[in-house]
Amino acid sequence: GNADKVSLALDGNNNPVIAWHDSSTYEIYVKRFDGVRWIELGAGSASGGGISNSPNQAGSPVLRIAPNGNIIVAWQDSAAAPTNQIYVKKYDGTSWAAFSPGSATGGGISNTPGDSAKPDMVLDSNGYPIIAWWDVSSGNREIYMKRYNGAAWVELAGSATGGGISSNADNSLYPSIALDSQ
Question: What pTM does this model have?
Fold first, then answer.
């Protein structure tokens, strides 16, 4: 199968860490270069079910590294078939786990009735994710966004319901997210 939808970040030692979608297994895989070779992060992060270990299909990973060194990966997952939802896991140096309770099962962080897909992610100064994606719950693709506030995933002023951020009469696709100085 093909390896595609690659996402790359540098760890604290400037070693590349890469997440990708493997089309032969439809799973999300992650490896880090240790200066000599590419290694799995925790058991099975780049084999078998990878970090997604989805009963259906996982895709479109985005990887970021928090100031504390945790590796955070968000992706779309169809485990909650018939719709894709946005899932998030973190690697703490030992093992992969849901970023927060429920963030990598069921409805994930998106938890919408329509397809949620193509996430992008940025980390705030606390290392908490802010994730944008397109969602079809309102009838056409709109841009949705949620932020982790240290206790829960929250939307900002309707950013993950109804028309979301874009709220227009046609499709809005492929969000890109960044933080300003405030």
Answer: 0.96
